[in-house]
């Protein structure tokens, strides 16, 4: 794949967009840690917000209290979610299983 040549203006716009996406994902993770956001809210927001839809499931699970790297990976294995899967790419059954496990 050839990387397209971007002008400085296009590069700045892309960096700004990426920064906003990282900020949005950080806000969601913080809300989950605080308990002010439920998993079902994240899934519904992913339909409207591309930044959330492109968030990795592993990062989402790590945001929950008392879930570390090993437990998150075991949850993903149990449900059948690949390590590279993102929120927007989850199937209905995978979402339902996560909601059942995590509330």
TrEMBL record:
<protein>
    <submittedName>
        <fullName>Integration host factor MihF</fullName>
    </submittedName>
</protein>
<dbReference type="Pfam" id="PF22525">
    <property type="entry name" value="H2TH_5"/>
</dbReference>
<feature type="domain" description="Integration host factor-like helix-two turn-helix">
    <location>
        <begin position="32"/>
        <end position="100"/>
    </location>
</feature>
<dbReference type="InterPro" id="IPR055201">
    <property type="entry name" value="IHF-like_H2TH"/>
</dbReference>
<dbReference type="InterPro" id="IPR047806">
    <property type="entry name" value="IHF_actinobact"/>
</dbReference>
